[in-house]
Design goal:
By secondary structure, this protein is of the alpha/beta class. Helix 8 (234-258) packs across helix 9 (282-292). The structure holds ligand 26Q. The site of ligand 26Q has 21 residues, from helix 6.
């Protein structure tokens, strides 16, 4: 499409000249143009097609991304600017589809982008939630949650005439299919298939995000479930999962038959990737449907095992889904006999309770079913996969060593470089040509410029500009002014104790004391947080409260606030991440070693020229290997030390608290007069007790190492900007291996064999 054609089309759709259009009108018109263009790249599928089935697709806003992938972005931007309109304001018009909690959902979105870009036949299957993850606001330094409706009149999710019957608790429902086009970068167009009921009714919503949990017809797809340890209403999650899985399985079979399958050969037509245990019921559901169509049970099991593969995203035992049998008996009675039979097969063969699907307390272990009845189980970073093999899933690894494999996560460079950091993208292109956009390994060519002063200066200047842009965005959004000349250290990810935002909190209190004592940092510091806490996760919310309260205490203290500022981004989401990541100097990846399966934010920051301060956990290990120890700040216990400490069961936080005056001082400060003056005593005391008497994620043993490494980073940053820029450049040049294009190519070569 030429620029002139684009202009004519816009004018035709809006029925007036561009200058007099509102942003809403422009958005709608561009959405239509984008859809028309992307439809031209839909390709017929022959052979094996992938279905990536996931309860979450954290796709984020789509307009700019799709325009970039279709090669229309620059023309649209110029056209708007020529008519006095800005792309940034246009983007504000689009509601963000927050259809995921965090890493797992965002990974699914990156994978769809890479599949389409690599010209592979691969669709997503998920749910069309009416509200994405809750909207977060702060009130009295506390998190509040409100519903986040994202479906306006013009949504990317197009309603189809296709409906599938789904039986839930013995009642019949109709799952309607909606489709979102997934455009690849100079590639094909695939599809994200989302299912929904026609009968959803937002009037069942009460205060905040509470709603009447009883009326399935009205509430089933109303909300995305927050990553939650809360039991209340969990049964509704089974309803959601089965709606997705049953409609999805019917669609997969129908699609295969249409393309010539006799179902015995289903594996030649379909590959199903199960994204964590949330869609695990697809296994018994496919078996059920195949036997219904006349295939013998044993053969159906064999077919499904060949078709399906499973990805594990967590090492936290408490996060592995297990459902009380009576839940499943209530919601999906048609599956229970099949799950029972699968369990018999396993028990007869192995006679080992540790690998049974149904345990002695009548809980159904979804991950166990996945490992037995798929041909591949993968972890999401090298360390994670090793821990699965050697400890967490060792019983299974011994049975099926050949099924276990690693697929280190990745991110799409189209959104996390081209879209969010156009200035850096243009500069890289000037240095090494455009090849890196589709072949990320070409970033290596940047290493040749590591000692080129002109290049390093420009890298620093771009970072400076991105910090300025972030500061303006923050000012407009939250009315907060930050010092653009300070060092920006950012920790943005879900709020979880294992991710240890509380360790960062203790550091900031420590700094507060140091500054008070006249020990000034070498450079002013701005500590930025972005994080949502699950509504029922009490301690996570207490950590948010403590950080907001500390931020207020520091802001009110002119002696300290010149040197230290804490900023908490309200309602962290994909759009916010796109503003924060390019502006970051130091990326905080400080989970307790062995607990973060991979992390993907770590990759995004690195790609945008931040240095990492991190533990040897998840993909940090691979980042450290890639950039070398002089280009990263590593600290803390190793995963082996942590695992040993847990095994010994002798960690006593109180001893660390008593033995170290800095730790004691920092923890005591939580309930100081200053903090109690600005915050709530209940929350602050509860967090303090948790740290002294429990500290399940071993914050205190890593405290001193963290302080030392972080202060080293501040000093290096302050004293030698050129060297810092050089190390940033090396980080960018080594980021190629963390492209999701690489990840998807590996999945395809080793698991899917598509086409
Ligand atoms: C479970 C039961 C009930 C309600 C919610 C849930 C639930 C929802 C979401 C459990 C887990 C999740 C999300 C997990 C997740 O995002 N895991 C992250 O996956 C990333 C991609 O592989 C990794 O990089 C992160 O390390 C991992 O934490």
């Amino acid at each position: 499409m030429t620029k002139k054609e684009l202009e004519n089309k816009l004018i035709e759709l809006c029925k007036k000249n561009i200058k007099s259009c509102s942003y809403e009108e422009l958005y709608t018109a561009l959405l239509n143009i984008t859809e028309e263009e992307s439809a031209k790249h839909v390709e017929a599928v022959t052979g094996r097609k992938l279905y990536y089935i996931s309860a979450e697709f954290l796709i984020g806003k789509l307009l700019s991304n799709n325009l970039i992938n279709l090669g229309l972005y620059d023309d649209v931007k110029k056209l708007l600017e020529a008519n006095g309109k800005s792309m940034a304001e246009l983007e504000e018009t689009e509601p963000e589809p927050s259809l995921g909690n965090g890493g797992l959902g965002r990974l699914a979105a990156c994978f769809l982008d890479s599949l389409a870009t690599l010209n592979l036949p691969g669709d997503g299957i998920g749910l069309r939630y009416h509200c994405g993850l809750f909207r977060q606001n702060f009130n009295n330094n506390l998190q509040n949650e409100t519903p986040d409706f994202w479906l306006g009149d013009d949504s990317w999710a197009k309603k189809t005439e296709k409906v599938y019957p789904v039986s839930l608790a013995g009642k019949n429902y109709e799952a309607r299919l909606y489709k979102i086009a997934v455009t690849g970068y100079e590639g094909r167009t695939n599809c994200l298939n989302l299912f929904d009921l026609d009968t959803i009714d937002p009037s069942v919503i009460g205060d905040g995000i509470s709603f009447d949990k009883n009326d399935i017809e009205k509430n089933l797809t109303l909300f995305l479930y927050p990553d939650d340890s809360d039991d209340a209403g969990r049964i509704l999650r089974i309803y959601q999962q089965y709606l997705m899985v049953s409609a999805g399985a019917q669609m997969i079979l129908e699609d295969a038959v249409e393309r010539g399958s006799d179902l015995h050969d289903l594996a030649d037509y379909a590959a199903v990737q199960i994204n964590d245990t949330h869609p695990s019921m697809v296994i018994p559901e496919l078996i059920r449907l195949l036997t219904e169509k006349g295939i013998e049970f044993e053969e159906a099991v064999e077919i499904v095992t060949k078709v399906c593969a499973y990805t594990n995203h967590t090492i936290l035992a408490e996060a592995l889904e297990k459902w009380p049998r009576h839940f499943l008996e209530t919601v999906v009675p048609q599956l229970m006999p099949i799950i029972e039979k699968l369990n018999h097969i396993v028990c007869d063969k192995y006679n080992d309770q540790a690998v049974a699907i149904i345990d002695q307390w009548q809980n159904v272990h979804m991950a166990n079913m996945d490992i037995h009845f798929t041909h591949s189980t993968n972890g999401v970073a090298a360390l994670h996969t090793e821990i699965l093999k050697n400890s967490e899933l060792n019983h299974f690894y011994r049975l099926y060593p050949e099924r276990f494999n690693n697929k280190t996560n990745g991110i799409t460079f189209r959104r996390w470089l081209l879209k969010c950091n156009p200035e850096l993208t243009a500069y890289i292109e000037k240095l090494i040509g455009p090849g890196f956009k589709k072949d990320a390994s070409e970033l290596e060519k940047l290493a040749a410029f590591a000692d080129d002063e002109k290049v390093l200066k420009q890298i620093m200047k771009i970072k400076k500009n991105n910090k300025k842009a972030f500061a303006q965005w923050l000012e407009a959004k939250q009315g907060i002014t930050v010092n653009e000349n300070s060092m920006f250290m950012i920790q943005s990810k879900r709020l979880h104790e294992y991710k240890r935002q509380q360790l960062n909190l203790l550091y900031l209190i420590h700094q507060y004391y140091e500054i008070k004592a006249g020990h000034l940092p070498k450079k002013p510091i701005t500590a930025v947080f972005g994080a949502k806490a699950a509504p029922a996760y009490t301690i996570a919310k207490d950590i948010i409260h403590a950080l907001l309260t500390l931020s207020e205490v520091i802001a009110a203290d002119p002696e300290v606030s010149k040197w230290l500022q804490i900023v908490f981004i309200e309602n962290y989401n994909v759009a916010a991440a796109e503003k924060m990541i390019p502006a970051c100097d130091l990326s905080e990846q400080i989970s307790l070693a062995s607990k973060e399966a991979s992390g993907t934010g770590n990759m995004k920051f690195m790609l945008n020229g931040a240095l990492t301060l991190g533990t040897m956990d998840g993909a940090n290990v691979e980042i450290a290997e890639a950039v070398g120890e002089e280009n990263i700040y590593i600290f803390g216990q190793s995963s082996n030390q942590v695992i040993r400490r847990y095994a010994q069961g002798d960690y006593c936080a109180k001893e660390w608290y008593e033995a170290d005056s800095n730790i004691k001082r920092a923890i005591n400060f939580l309930t100081s007069e200053a903090m109690l003056g600005a915050g709530c005593a209940d929350n602050l005391y509860r967090l303090q007790n948790e740290l002294i008497y429990k500290d399940w994620f071993q914050t205190l043993p890593d405290f001193n190492a963290y302080v030392v490494r972080k202060n080293q980073a501040v000093e290096d940053y302050a004293l030698n900007q050129k060297d810092w820029a050089k190390r940033a450049l090396i980080n960018i040049s080594k980021a190629g291996q963390f492209s999701s294009d690489r990840t998807i190519a590996e999945y395809n070569d080793e698991i899917w064999h598509l086409g």
